[in-house]
Amino acid sequence: MFTPANFLQYTQWSGIATLVIAALTVLAFILKWALRFRLVGATGFMAVLTFGLFSLSLAPLTRTVIPGAIKYSLIYDNGSTQTVIAVPNQITSSELEATLRQAASNLYSVGRSSSREEPNLTIRARTVLHPEPGLSVPFYLGQVKRSLINREDPEMNIEIYEDKLAQLPTANS
Asked: Which of these, 74, 119, 130, 156, is most buried using a 10 Å CB contact count?
């Protein structure tokens, strides 16, 4: 996993390369080389790359790991207050709770908009059941509501639909 220190080191090397290419571009204009305009593009690209690496050194791209959580897929996200994740249909109540906690942490973003009516992010967990060939039914297993304002929300509301979990097929069937 890359750390901010790694990105800072990459920024330094990229900055040096940008300065070298910029100097080469100035030299190309002085000597009227045919590729001088291509070097302008390369210099601009390197400057954007350097800026991007620098911004990654300020804010790490880390994901929360909750023990007991299983892998999930993001199915729907309106960018505001509603998301849906998909989990496998072989899941236990404790795994679902840990997965909902992990999704609530990973999907939090200061860029999500809220309103006075709905200041919370709602993450619903679902699986897909196939009761008969050719028929797929989405099956909601639980949800978590967390604050859109506070990153460390101590009052997350996690609901596990135990009756729905009991209807899931077992590993033996």
From this structure: 156
Q: Is-contact 85 124, C-beta < 8 A?
A: yes
Q: Which amino acid type is present at position 9?
A: Q
Q: Determine whether 168 is exposed, middle or buried from the number of CB atoms within 10 Å of its CB (0-12, 13-18, 19+).
A: middle
What phi and psi, each to the nearest 5 degrees, are found at residue 141?
A: -110, -20
Residue type, 53: L
For residues 95 and 71, the answer to whether their CB atoms sit within 8 Å is no
pLDDT in tens, 78-106: 878 889 999 998 899 999 999 999 998 88
Name the nearest CA neighbour of 36 among 19, 21, 49, 16. Answer: 21
Between vectors from CA 23 to CA 22 and to CA 27, what angle results, nearest 5°? 115
Does the predicted TM-score (pTM) go above 0.90? no
| Cβ atoms within 10 Å, residue 123 | 28
Mean confidence (pLDDT) of the chain: 87
Q: How many helices (DSSP H) and strands (DSSP E) are in the chain?
A: 4, 5
In angstroms, rounded to a whole number, what is the distance separating the alpha carbons of residues 92 and 88? 10
Tell me how far apart the alpha carbons of residues 87 and 154 are, in angstroms, rounded to a whole number. Answer: 24
